[in-house]
Design brief:
Keywords: Signal
Low-confidence stretches: none
Number of strands: 9
Largest sheet: 5 strands, antiparallel
Distance between the termini: 41 Å
Number of helices: 3
Strand order of the largest sheet: 1-9-8-7-5
Shape: globular
Bound molecules: 2-acetamido-2-deoxy-beta-D-glucopyranose
Strand content: 25-35%
Length: about 180
């Protein structure tokens, strides 16, 4: 096949496999049965992770993980594999309804008073969080609130998606590594 045929085939595949994307700004709820590292059976994302699309389910690539070893405190995580970057911010006890995309980064809308983002974050009942995903295939912003939480046990969150895209990298520098220094 020549490159044009490859391109046509690629476009066909891309169009043929279109996924249902989450509706923005709508509050939904999900319950986790247990933290990922404190589940009874073999390790699986079922019952402890949020998948915003069936694309994520297909790729076994959740958008948010509820984690923590049995008996320890629990965390939310978004950096789960490879070079999938992601960050979380704890906005405190603020109403989920109020968190716009803009407030997800700076809740008070005051210059210099930006929200603090970290790669994992402690689960606190009644707190509202913002999550930013910058993965090679997903770019997203969503906000969620811990409605109920039992240490090492079940948790329920309500969440709203502020931006979501399944993306295709057109070009990427080779050689990514988590440990490579600079010269
Ligand atoms: C949330 O939004 C409502 C309506 O705009 C406002 O009255 C309230 O003060 C806001 N709460 C917080 C904590 O920002």
């Amino acid at each position: 096949m020549d490159s044009f045929t490859y391109l046509s085939l690629f476009i066909f595949v891309a169009v043929a496999s279109s996924f249902t994307l989450p509706e923005l700004h709508v509050i939904k709820k999900i319950s986790f049965k247990y933290p990922y590292s404190c589940q009874p059976g073999p390790s699986s994302y079922e019952g402890c992770a949020l998948f915003l699309t069936d694309y994520g389910v297909l790729r076994n690539m959740p958008d948010l993980l509820y984690n923590g070893a049995c008996g320890s405190s629990n965390t939310f995580e978004v950096m789960l594999a490879g070079d999938n970057f992601g960050m979380l911010s704890d906005l405190g006890d603020v109403p989920l309804e109020n968190v716009t995309a803009s407030k997800a980064f700076n809740y008070n809308r005051i210059t210099g008073d930006d929200n603090t983002f970290t790669s994992t974050i402690k689960v606190v009942s009644g707190h509202t969080y913002a999550a930013l995903l910058a993965k090679s295939e997903i770019r997203a912003l969503f906000v969620f609130r811990v409605e109920s939480y039992e240490r090492s046990g079940p948790a329920t969150i309500s969440y709203a998606v502020k931006q979501y895209g399944i993306i295709t990298l057109s070009q990427e520098s080779p050689g990514f590594s988590w440990d490579e220094p600079n010269h």
